[in-house]
Amino acid sequence: MHKYLMITLLGLAFISCEKPEPISQKTTEFKIDYEKFVLDNGLEVILHEDHSDPIVAVATMMHVGSNREKPGKTGFAHFFEHMSFNDSENVPVGANRKMIPEWGGSRNGGTWSDGTVYYEVVPKDAFEKILWIDSDRFGYMINTVTEAALEREKQVVKNEKRQRVDNAAYGYTDEIIRKNLYPEGHPYSWTVIGALPDLQAATIDDVKEFYNQYYGASNASLVIAGDIDIEETKKLVEQWFGEIPSGPEVEELQAQPVTLTETKSLYFEDNFAKLPELRMVIPSVEEYHEDVYALQILGQLLSGSKKAPLYNVLVEEKKLAPNVSSYQSSNEIAGEFVFRVRANEGIDLDEVKNAIEEGLARFESNGVNENDLKRIKAELETNLYQGISTVLNKAFQLVQDNEFKGDPGFIVESAKLTNAVTADDVMRVFNKYIKNKNYVMTSVVPKGQLDLAVSEAKEAKVWIEQVRQNVANEEVGQGEEAVYEKTETIHDRSEPDFGELPLFKAPEIWTSSLDNGLTLYGIENNEVPLVQFDITIPGGHLLDPIGKAGVSSLLSDLLMEGTASKTSADLEEAIGLLGASINMYSDKEDFHITGSCLTKNFEATMALVKEIILEPRWDEKEFERLKLALETSLKGREANPNAIGSMVFNKLIYGDNHRFGIPGSGTLESTKNISMSDLKSYYNNLSPREAKFHIAGAITKGQTENVVRILNDWTGYKIAIPYNNLPINSKKGNVYFIDIPDAKQSVIRIGKLALSENDNDANNLSFANEIIGGGSSGRLFQTLRIEKGYTYGAYSGVSQSSEIAPFSVRTSVRANATLKSLEIIKQMLTDYGSSFTDTEVELTKNKVLKSNTRAYESLGAQLSILRNISKYNKPVTYIVDDQDELVSMTLDNYHSIINNYLKEEDMVYLVVGDKKTQFEEVKKLGKPVIELDIYGNIIEGEDASL
Fold first, then answer.
1. Contact of 548 with 678, CB cutoff 8 Å
2. What are phi and psi of 534, to 5 degrees?
3. What are the C-alpha distances in Å from 579 to residues 43, 710, 818?
């Protein structure tokens, strides 16, 4: 076996048969073990040992979010998070974003109103390296900030705002609510991402002031969780983090809840929205307040089930919307209770408002149903374990509660406080915070449909960027490296060596079968008392009737709406009382029944799965509701430029005559004539004969067999899957353009059909993609985001399916950088083969091999292993086989793969953006440009093959 191989074959052997055994009903006390200590500089450190996988998670929580900003300098905490990932004194330029993925790790950060978190997960051998790079970012980055880095990162953050806010339906709603819910100057009166003019005005002095004020060691918590030795780790933390300056004392913020003296009703015409949306936001209480737990449960009781009053009134009785949500949202110094309804097309939001009020009156009249309270608590118990099922999730929980509550293990107390909530508590907080209270209400309606807004609402004002070409300050580059005097330290801050290469033991895989043909695949994992399972039935979208795409997807929804003996609400309640989840969905090639539960409830959960499969209710009322909800969803999809890009891209590469050229959820045209009889006909395709049952979690093979045998009553025949002819690649070399008026970004999709997962070259093509588009270390990301600042992200990859799947490049770039981005991607694809050297061969090998140490940690990832084995007939040793294949690949192999599958001239280009400013620009690329509508139909140009 090759010396680089990190997976032992022993772990992949089949397990011998064992005697069936009962599932224990005993549940151990919920807790997370940890050790906490404080460095002399004030940094609070929490360590958690978990030797289940050879990986380590590191999370650093800075107690500074947008609530520490000043008016006129909004968005700065988030902007500083971006700046922190650039350079530091003792780490090579650009290494922070590039090296960690190359070590097989992942890294990111996040900022919200109250804090900023930086986190990494790496193979164990890179543990000290991550302490080096993490501590250097924390304590030694400020001297490396240059004007060029500042201006480049401004463009990245502005692109993030364009992508998430300006180019998204309902993107401005948060800004409208904050401005009107909180008084001017309140720390929550502006959004976390801030205003573009504020970002553009940021200076290096601003960056330094912010760093010096808030990035001291005494204003942070550090959590390290995973395969560590506590005593050794303490020494390493002292070495790498102990010399970071303590920083000035940061004044603790006191709670600043708000009270509204009147209800404020505002409307906004949204350029992207296709559906009207109503939100009502009532001031409530801050995080960790004693009433938070009852308010959280109140939110679930009002809208979180089929028996909830808001659901009953808005969805079932008045048919105003496909769903309704209500929830408590708490932050450090204030909180909000939110009602949110995205209504059906054309619905007057006055009706929605009145329906919410009717639902609240019904709740007040009926009070709290004890069974509902019991159900919610059961669901929360399961959620607790799911929330700590990976080392990174544990790190997040520990660091958050330490920094904001002063108790890393507060999750245990939180669970107790939640479980202690009574019906009287819920009614008390309803009366105290919700009943007859003033609120901020937003009516966000599609452009030109002001008649749908709540009567007498006032217009909301937001600042909207205008797209302009050739803006000088938006053209950025790498620039010169900073010149500075390096900070003196006692400890050597040179890059440490890798530790001992981790030996990743792949999970043991067992297999079995039932008499009805259902094949079982399992992995036992006893880290938490949970199981996740998946039943995969071949067919999916491939078996949809011609012209009625969406049948299988609609059936998957309907089967969850009750059984012969249970109404939709009864079934939901039965699942909830177990703290379980059961879901169905249909994808391109398969129909899935999935679920999760505490191990002690697996038998009862599977009894419900059997009932769902074998005793459908065929409820006409629910069918009509689901049809209406689907229509609303499909209409809403038309508001999303990324969704439009994905749908039309598939239509371009697969053509009109292939099932995959149409979304599996269908279109407004394909779903309008779907009937109940179509669903009943498709139901006959749900046969166990070729189906696979996958399970991962705290359960043995024998226990699983003992329970799953109840599915032997499920019978059927082998179903023939229809063959689809693939189109000739007649669109290669063309650029297709879809107009989204006033779009602040252009969505770009570039690609071609490549190969099936069953193809011998599938793994090799995936390996060959790593350098160009595999995450933040890929050339696309490094060039378009890090170097040019054109985008928030850029990636490429190969889809996985039995049918021939596409290779695609995906990004969204600022509108006035559309042509430049297309030119860069075109050149990058053209030169990829010739620029791929032995250096890239070695880099790919190390990156992929090491990433496998953390690739299969979660139960969901382990289910993916089992699905790959069963769907593509892979051997149980396939992970090892794939790595052997990777290790043996030569430079010639890579060149061959790139030349066969990634020729630029074979690619189809698609741009979804603002025609007024970008259509003529795109023509300068030198390729034929054809305009399409949002459904992929030609508007102008010549392309008779479409």
1. yes
2. -150, 130
3. 38, 21, 48
- C-alpha 530/C-alpha 528 separation (Å) is 6
Give the whole-angstrom CA distance, residue 613 versus residue 798.
33
Q: In sequence order, what are the residues at sequence separation of 6 or more whose Cβ sits closer than 8 angstroms to the Cβ of residue 351? A: 318, 320
Mean pLDDT computed over 558-586: 96
Same domain assignment for residues 585 and 518? yes
Task: Supply the pLDDT for residue 782.
Answer: 92
The Cβ of residue 477 has, within 10 Å, a number of other Cβ atoms equal to: 11
Torsional class of 194: left (φ above 0), alpha (ψ -120 to 50), beta (otherwise):
left
Q: Domain with 565 in it: what CATH number? A: 3.30.830.10
Both 514 and 425 in a single domain?
Answer: no
* Backbone dihedral angles phi then psi of residue 753, each to the nearest 5 degrees: -65, 135
Q: In whole numbers, what is the pLDDT of the chain averaged over residues? A: 91
**Same structural domain, 594 and 741:** no
Write down the residue that tokens 């997370």 correspond to.
32
Asked whether residue 76 is domain-assigned, the answer is: no
The verdict on 765 and 910 lying in the same domain is yes
C-alpha separations of 870 from 57, 509, 521, 867 in Å: 31, 12, 8, 5
Task: Note the helical H segments in 140-257.
Answer: 147-161, 173-181, 196-200, 204-214, 230-241
What is the percent of the chain with per-residue pLDDT over 70, rounded to a whole number?
A: 95
- Residue 908 domain boundaries: 735-940
pLDDT at 853: 78
In a domain, 783, yes or no: yes
546 and 409 assigned to the same domain: no
Distance CA 667, CA 671 (A): 6
Same domain, 690 and 610: yes
Strands (E), 530-589: 530-538, 581-586
413 and 295, same domain (yes or no): yes
pLDDT of residue 17: 38
Q: What are the backbone angles phi and psi of residue 322, rounded to the nearest 5°?
A: -75, -20
- What total number of domains does the chain contain? 3
pLDDT at 517 over 70: yes
Same domain (yes/no): 659, 743: no
Res. 2 pLDDT band, cuts 50 70 90: very low
Of 436, 459, 482, the residue at which a domain comes to its end is 459
Spatial distance between the Cα atoms of 143 and 140, rounded to a whole number of angstroms: 7
Residue 63 near residue 115 (C-beta atoms within 8 A): yes
In a domain? residue 176: no
